[in-house]
Amino acid sequence: MRKTRGEELELVHGSGNVFRDFDDPQADILQLKSILAAQIIGILDDRNLSVRKAQQLTGVAASEFSRVRNAKLTRFTVDRLMTILNKLDQEVEVAVTIRPRTHTPHHVSV
Question: Dmax over Cα atoms in the chain, in whole Å?
Fold first, then answer.
């Protein structure tokens, strides 16, 4: 983007949850699913596991690993993703913070 003389750029600071930034009503669940899926993908990559090899090791269908790799998470629950991580020899620890929602934008003019 090119700035013209006299035009101000708007710098937008994200909340740390892109789904919340785009006002998705399921933002918190989608964020958690994304974090869990990213961990699964990271383990597959670190261990150089194909989806077929991951299936052999865990009993989880290769198609499910393919869905995770392609970020198609609508068919997964949070507990299903945690179960997959457990089958990959991972312990999952979750910390929860609950606070009232704020509806103020995170905009700063530069």
Answer: 61
